[in-house]
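Bumping with the actual sequence this time:
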Amino acid sequence: CRLVERVSTMTKKPGRVTVQTQCSAGVAVMVAVPSRAEEPAELLKKLGERRAKIRSLHHITADTAQAKDSTTKVTTDLWEKRDGDLLKQRLFRETVKTSAGSDKPAGSPTRGLTVSDGKIEWRELPVGDGVMAVKSKPKPRDDLRELRSGIEGGRARSKDGGTIAGHECVLIEVVGGSDSARFKTSYWVSSKYGIILKRTHASAGGDRRELTTVELKINESVDDAKFTYTPPAGATVLDTDAMKPPAKAKGKGK
């Protein structure tokens, strides 16, 4: 047989290159051969560039952490829209904790909301029986920050991650720690969009954690109203830029 052409790249299928050969009998054969896996840091840079090109996003995830005596589930609902140089984000997070052997929540769920129009960011936090609304400069959410830190501080490798939520993924595995503190974290990242669609974590101490994608919509229309915020009536308002003392919000909130 003689080599005809390379039909896919290592970037699309990490650790594997598909080639087409033409045999003397005229039969085309597709074969997968091993290739040098892309360095995780190099690959992550490319994924980050693809993530930054997304025009709009709605991503709901469920993150479950299991310890010896409790289970904590964090549901995250992220909206995102790029408007020129502005990155608008709305992030709602709910945390529910249950004790071992029980399905009932141990206390009330903890909720938090962050809304940014690209110029001003608001964080709504529960404080006692009330709410505090914190105003500050935007701090865009970086989905890949944890993975970036893991690659810098541990040993990492990348390979084909199959398909998650209908998207081809690259799987990046990070191993770190030592002896009793050793851990392994695996990230399934969309090869096309650079979004983490699944993450698992296991430690030598027995703790387990898994993040899964519940819903994902990319580059669909998103109303700008998602990124506007007014503190609810009675909320304590803190402006970190002006460094003013806390004040009570007036009027009706949204």
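The tokens above came from a reply further down the thread. The mean pLDDT is 82.
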